[in-house]
Amino acid sequence: MKNILVTGSAGQIGSELIPELRKRYGHDHVVAGIRKTRPPREVLESGPVETVDITDRNRIYQAVKKYRIDTIYNLAALLSVVGESRPLDAWHVGVDGLLNVLEVARECRCSVFTPSSIGVFGLSTPLDDTPQDTIQRPRTIYGISKVAGELLSDYYFERYRVDTRSVRYPGIISNVTPPGGGTTDYAVEIFYAALKEKKYACPLKPGTYLDMMYMPDCIEAAIRLMEADPSRFKHRNSFNVTAMSFAPEIIEAEIRKHIPEFRLDYRVEPVKQKIAESWPNRMDDSCAREEWGWNPKYDLAMTTRDMLTVLSHRKETGTL
Ligand code: AKB
Considering only CA atoms, which residue is closest to atom 1 of ligand 1? Predict the structure, then answer.
């Protein structure tokens, strides 16, 4: 039986990963590490909760000892756009924080999952069918800290045999906790706007293709990778993973199949546009498929149907 600590529990991924981990491994075996922001009620009430700020190594150490933790899902991070307005914080949490987690993991023999991102790539990377092993010269502090995180995680594996694993997530589409501060957030906001206002002002230009994934696949990727037999790994930090790639006008067309009156216009935000243009159009994730069986279930049509079903229900019950 595993004992798991999740940092960044109030975030977009943490608030949905924790309930799934608790379902699979037992409610008392999954500790939600929180900081200032409160996670959803379900996370707070369904199992143990501890205050864990990853920039404080001692707090991580105490939580790991108290709950005899053997696996850490280290989700605490600042996303790409907010990182550009707070670069020192982005580095402090993304790199100093990760180093603290890795040090505790080395001492206490924990496995560590840390999400990386499409943000690790830049304009000198091949943007179509982006290979697993390629040039990584990002221009954002978020991307730079994620590259550093990938390298540190591999270093801790090579040097100390800490079992570090990670994936390069694309934009994540979800309906529990909003992402907040990312370049790909438009692909979540568009669904709320379509239902509430029947229109949306998109911050990215038409033709801006980006990789995306629906939350159930995002969670499956993390858990499946952490459960995988490492004897098949040729890589660890980090695997390209994607489920779909689209530009704003493609998701607009998909939403209009359900809400024909929906209209998209464009109010381009230069910071987001510049970041999006430096990220892949579509990654090649064949290494993840071969080395640990990555196999996403949700394409754009299924994601759109499910998002609109869930959010429509919330609209009818007055909770949207
Ligand atoms: C962001 O847009 O910053 C994130 C990411 C792709 O890493 N969603």
Answer: 182
